[in-house]
Amino acid sequence: MVDQAPDPKVDPRTFAEPAPVDDDQLEGVLRQATQMLKDAGIPAARGDARALIAHVLDLNRSDLYLQGARRLSDAEIEAIFPLVERRADREPVARIIGEREFWGLPFGLSPATLEPRPDSELVVEAVLAAITVDGVLPVDRPFRIADFGTGTGCLMLALLNELPAATGVALDLSEDALIQAEENARHLGLDDRVEFLLSDWDEALDEDEVFDIIVSNPPYIAGDVIEQLAPEVRDHDPELALDGGEDGLDAYRALAPVIRAHLADDGLAALEIGFDQGQSVPAIMTAAGLRADPPLTDLAQHPRCVLVRLPKTP
Ligand SMILES: C[S@@+](CC[C@H](N)C(=O)[O-])C[C@H]1O[C@@H](n2cnc3c(N)ncnc32)[C@H](O)[C@@H]1O
Question: Chain-centre distance of CA 176, in angstroms?
């Protein structure tokens, strides 16, 4: 007789009811928290519940699986459910936890900082790809980098982390965002290579200061779209980080002359753009006398990043 693998359609294990668990066991708390989030219409309910419980218990994801049968103390349970309620009220997990990972690095958040988005990693990736020569990242080059609208500092600090000889200036109009960015830089051990400046775009820079690399993820949401954003964004990301004016393009109009004035001759600027700004932003840059590449696309194939250079000298 040939030994056959059990047919998954009839394997009783496949259809087994979830094992019974008590309410004070970790798996039981996870099920209750997941149900609360599902009832509130949170799409990734189980993942979010898991992240919040892992945060309170200071466990990583795999420990969370392995310790499903663990009985939680009253204090642990009492610490978990208020956080689940906050998530049910549409506060993002990262805001509740106070931290968000970007480019594999931890970034503390404050009410004044945008929560860094995975899409913005494309800006870092595009810069690193553009400066790589023959497959080698020039880690010895003392690049000067400027980050306009630094928020948590995620773009600048990710680049400094990859480029150990680089230094930079990170600017923002929000003093509170800069306080958070500075704390993030200290936490990552990068604070000795970056200066934080309170500035309306380039206002605080010397007129003749130039940079090899300029990055910016400016506010680019059109004013009347902000009300329609998901509550996680609309009610928790700061308006100064979102509002791009009536058509969403105000910041690019302001940044075009800034890039012209502060980009080194062979320098490179990388700008994050909104999914529907793949034509308008390059047009603004070109009208300011800059060269703009066709936009790079994100994982969802939306235009997300424009590389800009000074015009070629004859
Ligand atoms: C979309 S957030 C980007 C934050 C961060 N760079 C990131 O990628 O997550 C835009 C940032 O620009 C800042 N900002 C808005 N207007 C500004 C201005 N006129 N000058 C400097 N920074 C500004 C906001 O405070 C906010 O931190």
Answer: 18
